[in-house]
Amino acid sequence: MRCARRSIARSARRRGAEIRNWLHKRREYSRSASEAPDTESGLASTNGVFTKCEGCGQPIYEKELKARFNVCPHCQFHYPLPAPERVRLLADEGSFSERDAGMTAGDPLGFEDYREKLESAHEKTGLDDAILSGVARIGGHPVALAAMDFRFIGGSMGSVVGERITRTVEAAHDGGLPLVIVSASGGARMYEGIYSLMQMAKTSVALSRYMTGSSPYVSVLTDPTFGGVTASFGTAADVVIAEPGARIGFAGARVIESTTKERLPEGFQTAEFQKEHGLVDRIVHRLELKDDLERFLGFLT
Amino acid sequence: MRCARRSIARSARRRGAEIRNWLHKRREYSRSASEAPDTESGLASTNGVFTKCEGCGQPIYEKELKARFNVCPHCQFHYPLPAPERVRLLADEGSFSERDAGMTAGDPLGFEDYREKLESAHEKTGLDDAILSGVARIGGHPVALAAMDFRFIGGSMGSVVGERITRTVEAAHDGGLPLVIVSASGGARMYEGIYSLMQMAKTSVALSRYMTGSSPYVSVLTDPTFGGVTASFGTAADVVIAEPGARIGFAGARVIESTTKERLPEGFQTAEFQKEHGLVDRIVHRLELKDDLERFLGFLT
Amino acid sequence: MILEFEKPVRELEARIAELHRLAGPNAELQEEISRLEDALDAAKRRIYSNLTPYQRVQVARHPDRPDFDRYRDALADDFYELSGDRLGADDPAVRGGLAKIGSRSVVLLGHEKGDDVNSRVKSNFGMAHPEGYRKAGRLYDLAERLELPIVSLIDTPGAAPARAAEERGQAWAISADLMALARVPVPVVAVVIGEGGSGGALAMCLADHVVMLENSYLSVIAPEACASIIFRDEKRAPEAAEAMKITARDLLAHGIADEVLPEPLGGAHNEPEAAVEAVVRAIEGTLSKLSRLGPESLVKNRYERYRRIGTHVTEGEMAGTRGPGE
Amino acid sequence: MILEFEKPVRELEARIAELHRLAGPNAELQEEISRLEDALDAAKRRIYSNLTPYQRVQVARHPDRPDFDRYRDALADDFYELSGDRLGADDPAVRGGLAKIGSRSVVLLGHEKGDDVNSRVKSNFGMAHPEGYRKAGRLYDLAERLELPIVSLIDTPGAAPARAAEERGQAWAISADLMALARVPVPVVAVVIGEGGSGGALAMCLADHVVMLENSYLSVIAPEACASIIFRDEKRAPEAAEAMKITARDLLAHGIADEVLPEPLGGAHNEPEAAVEAVVRAIEGTLSKLSRLGPESLVKNRYERYRRIGTHVTEGEMAGTRGPGE
Ligand SMILES: [Zn+2]
Ligand SMILES: [Zn+2]
Question: Which residue range is the domain that position B249 belongs to?
């Protein structure tokens, strides 16, 4: 069943950048990173074509979708957003200065296929790993900013993600800057084994020290955020914002269903569910996110 | 119904110090202090008589009951224990030095019957208010110690209880002493109106300051502990011990049942229930309490 | 909703309105109207200036009384709401977030009573569950971390007498809030805007400065419950309200409240703008004063403020009848 | 329980026992027995000294492996157990309290896996729910307040893949533990005594010194799950265990573990006293060393310890292949 779905997804991908493709992978999504969809570099890469929204079934101009940062103009369904687009969405124009560019993953365990995975992810996304980070201004407020990219091996957290998050936290700490991290992650990068797990510890010591100061930390959780990211820096924030419909948790729904044989309720682990459960502060539409962060930052200057 | 029960209780009292009497009142117990039983000065006051245990129905020598600090030798039912007996139970012999003796309640609001209530409680118990406090040694460890007395207007917290608790906390703070408080309270002393409520705030500021140090605070909750005591110093401890079967909570079961019309489960709000709910650390038999405190204090010297 | 003691006023008002309708240019009726209007004015003053404590409790509970939303909108140009206790629940009875009052950012929180049947049930009529106290506690921690003053608007009948609230440790949760407020090194300003019921209210008003609206109350127990327990008769609630000294002016006299804000004639619901404006001014003034104190002074003063409250008698000498006010 | 790879050993043992029974004074059989005993010895050494990573995982999971209770009893003359998260639940999968190790008082905590069907189910096979992480967090706070070192014994398959655990925010709870351990200004010693599964284990072993028993493992994901995801075949778990480098010696080599304690031949369950004794000595030694450091040094060293772990490559140069060990 799973395999059947996967091969459908694969052939669909070959046919072009259909949203359906994302969605198949969405459904297939599990906590495990490598199984998570390696998403296309951008929905709008094939120019001027209509695509059908998986959320509402209506046709969307791919150009319009791109202009709306991958939010369906009809039903407001939030498709994943590449990290460079996320930075473009949030940072004041021209204000983003990337830090730690060119940092790439080692292959500490010589894990089967890892090199190839990294290369193809790099080719597909143009990124060095599942993250972009640096300093920027949001509505004029200087911030340290990191954004994860789900297309790069399912946004899994390996040493590069851990290191760049940590350096971003340290930059915020040293500069007395507010910290904004946008997460999207299937969880750990198993190819890096224990190093992947230890990134939770590394980011946590940095964040814990940052939190002894008085500058704010806002975590933005997007679809999907699971595993080690949620269980470390993703949730230890002053304010936790989630995008509408984003699935957020530790263990993914499929893992839970297959382990416990329990049918999970509709909307399980969505942003709305987690807000209802007191775990998320705000649900903010992507096209209002910059404004929302500006408002928040405005309280603290 | 309530009145009927009360008048039965009253005539029973006249017939002698029967445990049945306590138990009637136990059942009648509610969060409100004045309605709570003003208990007898000691079960064993009538000498050499048998009494029937409400816990198990077996006969008990009242002398034996007293020797066992009001714990049934058959079923281990824990009857309320007067504060002086509690001090005798816990403090090394001759080590207790009372502080703030002679402090009595004012009648700030000139509340109907309050003076009479105070006088009759004083006559019955020999105490100035619902508390004894001072410094003592427990297994050789110097401690600041306070014990409440449920017989004195239902162990309700008015200005005297609040002040003596606060002074005990301050003595512990100033002397770098461990703090042990044994609570038994129906809640607020309504006769003192807002002053009663404010004792929660007063004890909390003192305790909050004490907790910035590194000396331990153990709270022992006995049957019953409700209302303002539980919602302030009673639960803000490093270790919360409860006696077996003790009922502990904020609102009493009867108030909840009459408000919500819901039938509460067997064992609701007992020590065991609260431990199950992660709110109480340990349930300790009264005759093992001194030993348990000695053990705890032994870790910190 | 018309409160019992307001009926004469409402009747007079109705008669005047009726006469206006009938009068036209009739000079005689104009005279009668004028007379009635004087009577109305007198009646209002007589009734509203001499409200009994229990009548004030009823005013404090009036469904049209300005609520959290109303004050929030007047206080803050922007309110950035936060949710949840981060433990598994979000209590609609407690609202909170960041707000800008004047030029000052604060953590603003308060009780939500709801304004229709659904929202009233949802917010449990303003009675918090443990998750509400823990949400408040989380906001206190946030205020400490971000070094922002805390402003709370209290309007709760009290803690929830409910099984679920007990099962999740409401006493523990209230206690934790008190401990947190006692040590938080930022200014804490509490305004009782309506009901201030028992420990549920206290968990938000252990503060450096306690403001009360004229018809708000703060009490260790609801007057009805007190009457039912002490007088064995719930109907004697007016007596209990009187005996317990729970009104704003009583509490000012006893030094528990620091400031009483007069309400428009008949209560805040008759002229919400004025009440809201008074609260805004009081908060701004207080924040401005408290902002001059450092963290240590704030915590020390707060300690002393509450340390003094009590009416015990030592060695035959009254020791502390007065509360924290001077 | 007999593990698959132990079968030759167990068979030899059975044959030897049988022969002993039959032999009596028969010299020829005595010789045969002697021969078999040599063979047994050789087989044991061969098998047990060359356990594959996945075989070690099986040893780590052995139901007779010494557990929290066993170590606790050996470590501490007295264990003063504490319960609950103070929020509404007590998780039987996490145990903790005060203990005296040698002359030192510590906060001791660890996982409970249970030792019969009932207790295994009750403790969810050692997989904590959010209340377990919060209980641990409460104990970390207690350790800070009472200025006591933290000693944790890790033995968990990992976090609970369960609806209830998600509903109460297990990710939030784990994250809070990590943040707390990162800053707690007392020595933190972690000993992986059996399984060290994912974030569930990490919530107790972000420490100043990480000890691992020879056959324990620490892994970002169970080998079976890794195999099923990466190799699309759960049966390839042995390969996954190998590839992920999860054994104590691997982790020592990679600088993640600080110390590996050899186990008796065949695993700790074959000779629990020896394993327990080694753990006790290691903890005592570590506490003694760490006790010389002040709170600031402890937190600073811990920061640096974890800060270094990573295998990213900067500007074509490997930057941090090694972990915290020197
Ligand atoms: Zn759509
Ligand atoms: Zn009995």
Answer: 83-298
pTM of full prediction above 0.90: yes
Nearest chain A residue to D302 by CA: give it: A205
pLDDT tens, residue by residue, A68-111? 999 999 999 999 999 999 999 999 999 999 999 999 999 999 99
A239–chain D Cβ distance below 8 A for any pair: no
Cβ contacts of B274 on chain C, cutoff 8 Å: 169
Instruction: Determine the Cα angle at C62 with ends C56 and C66, to 5°.
Output: 105
Cβ-count burial of C253 within 10 angstroms (0-12 exposed, 13-18 middle, 19+ buried)? Answer: middle
CATH of the domain at B190: 3.90.226.10
B and D adjacent (3 or more CB pairs under 8 angstroms): yes
Chain A residues within an 8 Å CB radius of C105: 299-300
Q: Cβ of A216 and C146 within 8 Å?
A: yes
- E strand intervals along D157-285: 188-197, 209-213, 217-219, 259-261
pLDDT tens per residue across span D29-61: 888 888 888 988 888 888 888 899 999 999 999
Co-location of A181 and A39 in the same domain: no
Within this chain, do residues B22 and B87 fall inside the same structural domain, yes or no?
no
Closest CA to B245 of B213, B264, B222: B222
Q: A88 and A24, same structural domain?
A: no
Selection from C90, C181, C182 nearest residue C129 by Cα:
C90
Share of chain B above pLDDT 90, in %: 78
For residue D49, CA distances in Å to B175, C263, D16, D52, D55 come to 58, 85, 22, 9, 11
Instruction: Check whether residue A121 and residue A187 sit in a common domain.
Output: yes
Same structural domain, A51 and A89: no
Q: Which amino acid is at C149?
A: P
This complex has an ipTM of: 0.92
Same domain, A59 and A152: no
Kindly state whether residues B56 and B201 are assigned to the same domain: no
- Which other chains touch chain A, taking contact as 3+ CB pairs less than 8 Å apart? C, D
Mean pLDDT, range C36-45, rounded to an integer: 88
Q: How many CB pairs under 8 A join B and D?
A: 56
**A23 and A116 both lie in a single domain:** no
